[in-house]
Write a structure and sequence with these properties.
By secondary structure, the protein is α+β, with helices and mostly antiparallel strands. Helix 1 crosses helix 2.
Length: 182
């Protein structure tokens, strides 16, 4: 698992210890056949396995992290990094910056590297557009021609609330006194 993680993340082999820790963390949160579909974390630590799996991220995932150490107003407040490990606190990960330094990151955001389109994706988009146009055409065919064919469900009528009696000016003169205009 460590070798596969390092190769797929394209990280140096020197990070085998981080990969090993991450794979052990991951394996302990995945259901096992020998444990009747339960996870080791569920059995030994009595933790909820679903909430524990919510923390899992791919090893070496490209992310953007908020930099809490920035004090200068004009400096960048985020940096790009890659996830290389977990901590005991939910939502906080060990990350490796591009300069090789390690930091802790709280709830990092993944970076999508699928911005550039290939020829295959353009053909898939055109196929999808064709399907959408066909579906829209069938919907237009199914539309009723006359208003009599349109069925409107009966809505229950809500009884009108009792109307408030409008008080005349004599009532307000008695209650508040007559106001003279300036």
């Amino acid at each position: 698992m460590c070798q596969t993680a390092l190769i797929s993340a394209a990280l140096p082999k020197g990070l085998w210890d981080k990969a090993s820790d991450t794979m052990a963390y991951t394996k302990n949160r995945v259901p096992h056949k020998t444990l009747s579909g339960k996870t080791p974390v569920e059995i030994f630590l009595k933790k909820n396995p679903v909430s524990e799996r919510a923390n899992l991220r791919p090893f070496g995932q490209h992310i953007i992290c908020y930099d809490y150490d920035v004090v200068n107003k004009l400096s960048a407040r985020s940096y790009e990094a890659r996830i290389v490990g977990y901590t005991q606190t939910f939502g906080i990960y060990q990350v490796r910056r591009s300069d090789g330094s390690y930091k802790l990151a709280k709830l990092p955001k993944p970076i999508n590297n699928h911005d550039s389109k290939s020829d295959d994706s353009e053909s898939e988009d055109s196929d999808l557009k064709g399907h959408v146009e066909e579906d829209y055409a069938t919907l237009r065919e199914e539309q009723p021609d006359s208003p009599e064919e349109i069925l409107i469900p009966d809505t229950p009528k809500v009884p009108n609330a009792p109307k408030r009696k409008k008080k005349d000016t004599a009532y307000w003169d008695d209650k508040l006194g007559h106001r003279k205009s300036p």
